[in-house]
Amino acid sequence: MKKHTILIAGASGVVGAAALEHFSKLPDWDVIALSRRPVALPEGAKHISVDLTDLAACQRAARELTHVTHIMFAALFELPDLVAGWRDPRQMAVNEAMLKNLLDAMEPEAKGLRHITIMQGTKAYGGHVEPAPVPAKERWPRHNHENFYWLQEDLLRARQKNAAWTFSILRPQIVFGYAVSSPMNIIGAIGAYAAILREQGLPLHFPGGGRYINGASDSRMIAQAAEFAATHEIAANETYNVVNGDSLVWQDIWGSIADRFGMQKGKDVPMCMAKVMPTHEAIWERIVKKHDLKANTLAQLISSSWEFTDRALGYGVENPADSVLSTLKLRQHGFANCYDTEDSLHDWLELMQKNRLIPR
User: Fold this and answer.
1) How confident is the model over 29-41, as pLDDT tens digits?
2) Where are the alpha helices (DSSP H) in 53-171?
3) Both 196 and 285 in a single domain?
4) Per the domain annotation, does 319 fall within a domain?
5) Which Pfam families is this protein grouped with (predicted)?
6) Is 328 part of any domain?
């Protein structure tokens, strides 16, 4: 019998999918994926379909999950207007309710629950409200803005006082990973953008704004950090930035993306992807047929990731503020893994090409 059983909520997303792969490879872990949509399961993993906004559905599922020892909560609700939704009370309320419903269902049933991991992000430092000081550190007081992060965190802290379990909070930056229809999958958006420009005979123009220093988080490293947090006492009730460890300036790696698609690196041609790219469904349909890709429409593949990509690339901003997260706390506590951000980007583009989601 294995030592641990982890329930990964939000297993169809970029972070959840990586966690599903990672924990399934560990010898002492049983893995249960929870999501509304079906997911591709690694060998040995199980899946349950649950809508986390439905408390009764969560309670029914929990009766079969009494053996769960760990929860990784990577589920996320986003409104169609992604960036505006980050400050919308409806979005905050739904994300709080999803975690609350799962806790309400699981706590009476999973008596051996030992640890819960939840996800936050750079919005914790208020970078979407005003420039954040560099580097952003976990020990800072909360940035004074409304955010579902604080609602979920307060819920955990209140429950944890009378519980046997501990929790950890992970804060990645721009997440590189693999998912279809994710609202924040920049890898898919860049790959589809390159393919559409190439089909039109164009070079790979840079569609964003001014240069700025940023960072990224490989979803594999987020999964590794989740394992660390779940199995080390030092991580109990702690918050960690989880970033690859190097820096990212998009313009400086743009040429390597052009090389991957056999294209010339283009000029800086600012373009609002969220407005322009959805108009290219006909071109995408032609690409799918020409390259024998899986039959996703552009909307199905990318969802609202165009809007997220606009923001990540600094579209419409002449001098974007640098966004740098300190990685010291996690490393000082004993986690030493890191990823080369450019290599990470190409790893995930390669996987999307291998799985016939974007063309080579």
Assistant:
1) 999 999 998 898 9
2) 55-62, 82-85, 89-106, 148-160
3) yes
4) yes
5) PRISE (PF22917)
6) no
Q: Within 10 A of 155 (CB to CB), how many other CB atoms are there?
A: 16
**Where on the phi/psi map is residue 304: left (φ > 0), alpha (ψ -120 to 50), or beta?**
alpha
**Among 118, 89, 93, 101, residue whose Cα is nearest residue 52:** 101
d(CA 141, CA 134): 15
Q: Would you state the torsion angle of the CA atoms of residues 191, 194, 200, 206, taken in this order, to the nearest 10 degrees?
A: 150
| Per-residue pLDDT band at 81 (split at 50, 70, 90) | confident
Q: Does 106 lie in the same domain as 65?
A: yes
Given a contact cutoff of 8 angstroms between Cβ atoms, the answer to whether 15 and 222 are in contact is yes
What is the total residue count of the chain?
360
CA–CA gap between residue 266 and residue 276 (Å, rounded): 18
Domain limits at 287? 176-215+247-323+340-354
pTM over 0.85: yes
Give residue 358's pLDDT band: very low, low, confident or very high (50, 70, 90).
very high
Query: 227-242: per-residue pLDDT in tens?
Result: 999 999 999 999 999 9
Domain count of the chain? 2
